[in-house]
Every structure is written in C-alpha cells, then in structure tokens.
Amino acid sequence: MEFRNNEAIYLQIAAYVSEKILRGVWAQGEKIPSVRDLSVELQVNPNTVMRTYEFLQSQEVIFNKRGIGFFVETEGIKKVKLYRKERFLQQDLPDFFRNIFLLDITLDDLQARYEKFKTENFKTE
C-alpha cells in the first residue's frame, strides 16, 4: 500500500479495511487480520494499525473479542457506507465538481464512463 502525504496513515488504513469490508472480503461477523498481521502486511508500525482499529471501533465498524481478535460488526457494512459517503460528500465531491466544471465534462460523459467502469471492474449479478 502506498500512503499519501495529505492524510493521516491510520485513516488511509481505515479506508483500506473499509474497502475490504465493502467488497465482502471480510464479511460481517468474520475475524479480520490481527494488528500484528496487518502491520506486517502494510509495513507499518503496529501502533498505527491499533489506532486504525480503535477508530473503526468508535465508528462501530468492527468490535474486539478480548483475547480472540477483531471482527466485523453485524451492521459494519452499513456503518462503513455511511461514514465513507459523508466523507466523500464533504471532502471529495467539491473538488470533483470543480474539475468537471472547469474541464467542461458533461453528465452524459460521466454516465458513459461510469457504466464502462462498472462493467470492467465489478461483476453484477
């Protein structure tokens, strides 16, 4: 994972974990990697992963079974979507709108690209 300089690493790791949950890689009620395992995988300090997990616990995305590990909350997917949606609407969307305005990109252009993106990247059932 490559980290960006404009955002705290623990929040970037939270986005990584959230995406795994949204994509169903880690299902609700399922155990997620330990702090140590994820820190090795991402090559970060275990304290950073612990801060990420504490943040996700406060968002009610994951929970800790003492001595066993961290698990995805029953409503974890719903909580991730709410958090990520609000964050996107507050932080990313204004820049996106500015760019499409400045570049004269139409909604039809966006719709066509979006449909192509979905087809190429996500299987729909």
TrEMBL record:
Gene3D superfamilies: 1.10.287.100, Winged helix-like DNA-binding domain superfamily/Winged helix DNA-binding domain. It comes from the Bacteria. One of its GO terms (molecular function) is DNA binding. Transmembrane segments: none annotated. Keywords: DNA-binding, Transcription, Transcription regulation. Residues 7-75 form the HTH gntR-type domain. It holds the Pfam family GntR. This is DNA-binding transcriptional regulator YhcF (GntR family). The lineage of its organism: Bacteria, Pseudomonadati, Bacteroidota, Sphingobacteriia, Sphingobacteriales.
